[in-house]
Design brief:
Number of helices: 2
Mean pLDDT: 91
Strand content: over 45%
Order of helices and strands: HEEEEHEEEEEEEE
Shape: globular
Low-confidence stretches: none
Largest sheet: 7 strands, antiparallel
Radius of gyration: 14 Å
Distance between the termini: 21 Å
Strand order of the largest sheet: 4-3-2-9-8-7-6
């Protein structure tokens, strides 16, 4: 079992923006989430996937935190689940894609997104809502999120 998978099973996550896999590989995430009192609150959340980074180094430089789950929702195609929520001091959000057996496929940690509290699907496009009413829309068929 990899470190990321072990953290997930223990109800924890790294506190660095990233798209983590259970094999301890990760891609940088660039997610800007405007605050509740920001003029852009209630707007779409930008989400860009970048290049790889070293998970072990990230765990040395950043702490870990507990996962606070707000929802688990079956995927429309029956292939698994989406889980979402947050952690930390209320500014951190996470999304996790789980296989049908509830094993971790990927974990997206976003330090400034705030907790995700719900999801709606249109096919395999998912619209995640955080506690500020901001939307993060992802195509779950893209290679990075598949």
């Amino acid at each position: 079992m990899g470190t990321i998978e072990g953290l997930w099973k223990a109800g924890e996550m790294p506190l660095r923006d990233g798209l983590y896999r259970p094999d301890d590989t990760a891609l940088k995430l660039h997610v800007d989430g405007p605050g509740a009192y920001h003029p852009d609150a209630g707007q779409p959340i930008p989400f860009r996937v970048g290049g790889p980074f070293d998970v072990a180094q990230a765990l040395e430089e950043h702490t870990i935190d507990g996962v606070d789950t707000c929802f688990e929702s079956p995927l429309p195609d029956g292939s698994g689940w989406m889980s979402g929520g947050g952690g930390g001091m209320g500014n951190i959000g996470y999304l996790a894609r789980l296989d049908a057996d509830s094993s971790l496929r990927w974990l997206a940690v976003m330090f400034r997104s705030n907790p995700f509290v719900g999801v709606r699907y249109e096919g395999m496009r998912a619209a995640f809502t955080n506690d500020w009413g901001n939307l993060l829309i992802l195509d779950l068929t893209t290679p990075a999120l598949g």
